[in-house]
Description:
two-stranded antiparallel ribbon; alpha/beta; 11 helices; 7-stranded mixed β-sheet
Amino acid sequence: xxxxxxxxxxxxxxxxxxxxxxxxxxxxxxxxxxxxxxxxxxxxxxxxxxxxxxxxxxxxxxxxxxxxxxxxxxxxxxxxxxxxxxxxxxxxxxxxxxxxxxxxxxxxxxxxxxxxxxxxxxxxxxxxxxxxxxxxxxxxxxxxxxxxxxxxxxxxxxxxxxxxxxxxxxxxxxxxxxxxxxxxxxxxxxxxxxxxxxxxxxxxxxxxxxxxxxxxxxxxxxxxxxxxxxxxxxxxxxxxxxxxxxxxxxxxxxxxxxxxxxxxxxxxxxxxxxxxx
Length: 277
């Protein structure tokens, strides 16, 4: 007879995920159990009803195939907010909160988010700063649809607009602040990424190909034309890219270059400023 007690189902799920090489198997199994039930875990000896057991088994099957929990549930927490995610957008990562935290130290009323994806950076900034407005660009129409849904969900549709654009190509305005988490993985590094990233994040959001720096080259080339005097720019980087991205921004005429670490002490953000006139 099948044991449908939550305790037994959870133990079986953890074993399945561990056997599949899933990191933090117990944490993921508990989160998926809560989602399958729609409520906190409760009595561990209570039976799951048939619908709950079916949902939980489906969730665990997907996670064992290395599909990220956020993509199974369609939701990712970022900067203490919940964002809708699909296979069209990069799964927001805690490392990117370093960029949001740094950008919030700046004064701004108009912000541009290049390669907005789910909109998590732009919308987090706007939500923290009432009265500010912003534009998010992306080359993917599907990604822009996700960002628009998140703006509506957070009640920010009146302050956030979205534009299909290849970096600055269709942007005809200037901003106090530019932010971006562009694709920066080198082509040769893709094979070494975790399956959750390599097989589920959109390739266009991971790598521009080649050495991984083409997005920074494009952003550096257009930054001054789209920043007000003294305006700031904050770019997420891979942990070895600080010096070369800083050099690109310096060569483009930006000033006050800083490389900022994440919570693990790794280089994570390059910040710069347009000259003051």
